[in-house]
Amino acid sequence: MSFLELAGVQKHFGTTVAVEDFNLSAERGEFVSFLGPSGCGTRSPSPTAGS
């Protein structure tokens, strides 16, 4: 069993889909990072995970 698991996460800004069917699992002690250019949406899953 994963320490952190996100399954089927979605994020919308009005009618714009920013994230659709995002899945992630991480074990305790793993370091996970999202990489991409500025404005490409790498932060979109982060606030969703905390809600």
Notes on the protein architecture:
This protein has 51 residues and is mostly beta strands. The protein has a domain at 1-28. 10% of the residues lie in helices and 41% in strands. It has one helix at residues 45-49, and strands at 4-13, 16-26. Strands 1-2 form a two-stranded antiparallel sheet. It is flat. The two termini are 21 Å apart. 0% of the residues are buried. The model has no long low-confidence stretch (mean pLDDT 79).
Q: What brief labels describe this structure?
A:
51 residues, mainly beta, two-stranded antiparallel sheet
What is the element layout, followed by pairings?
Layout: E1 4-13, E2 16-26, H1 45-49
Antiparallel strand pairs: 1-2
In short:
This protein is mainly beta and 51 residues long.
Strand content: 35-45%
Oligomeric description of these chains? single chain
Q: How can the largest sheet be summarized?
A: 2 strands, antiparallel
What's the tally of helices?
A: 1
Tell me the distance between the termini.
21 Å
The stretches of 5 or more residues where confidence is low (pLDDT under 50) are none
